[in-house]
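Here is one chain, start to finish.
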Amino acid sequence: MRAVIIIIDSFGIGALPDAENYGDSNSNTALHICETVKGDKWTVLKKMGLGNASLILGNELPGCKAIKSPTASFGVMNEKSPGKDTITGHWELAGLELNSAFTTFPPEFPSFPDKLIEEFTRITYKEIIGNKAASGTAIIEELGRQHIKTGKLIVYTSGDSVFQVAAHEDIVPLEELYNICTKARKLCDQYNIGRVIARPFVGKPGNFTRTKNRKDYTINYKGETIFDFLHKESINTVGIGKIGDIFLEKSITESYHDKGNDACIKRTEELLSKPAEGDEFIFVNYVDTDMLYGHRRNPQGYYDEVEKIDRHLGKLLDILREDELLIITADHGCDPTFEGTDHTREYVPLLCYQKKSEVVNLGIRDQFSDVAASVADFFGIFGYPRGISFL
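Its structure:
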């Protein structure tokens, strides 16, 4: 038996009831992409019931409308934990709910507390520039030349709970940058910051490019995720993309740190091309929708990336076996037509596929943890403590 969770990163499907508390009223990633990009779209997701899921919230997706007989069970999920970031979304999908949100910081200079910056410069022996919220590509264009000239690190945040450190690979070698971020991680624990992120880049002023050598340092967590429960039952657990970083490699048997969607898609297809030797759980994140197009407010690019994932899903549906379960969802929204450059607080779609299984309307689920509960149910792990199985 094998269960696979695919996260289309930031593919939200409508503002949550509390979205106004986050400044995200009327955000809707899927709907606004469909309204912006004309014509039919996402053949496989449409057949699976993406339009049907959106209709649960009263929204018809232009070019991806509800169909009479979808091939997958469909629904939407409400995020129970406070926040709208990667860590919160993924942890809740894995059954770990948060009672309080991670710390975020004001967008204007200086974003971070003086004491935090003072300690950071003391333990790293590096001065900083930036210290504000910004798009990663924009801030290296703004400050990259100064960084190269002075050697000062570019430190910035966003609407998420992040402490990001950008440096040119010729000025700060990768291992040095990673060491700096390791030290920063320990320091940021005191402030309940979700992630420290190393953001290396290359190139010359006017033509800087962020590389795929990004590395995330996630805050430690208490409690057990679905990985832990499966691992105790000797079920092989696999993380692809940034999953290993998000879950600190805990109870993950095989961790593939593939960078970008093309590499992650290739890895997923390779793993699913062969039957599992025993019971296996695969958790994969397709990050480019969020990182390259959501934050950069590029609806056409976002659409094209989902189209690529859609073709990939068509291949997977052809090779999935009767004892394999596929769950497709997201971790938050990042509406590319919305103001600012940050994530948006949204419902996420839920598509659940297994050959020859009954197709049902899963409705509005009250928490992302229903995914973890369903995976536990699939593998016959009874008494899972969080969420309600939809199988």
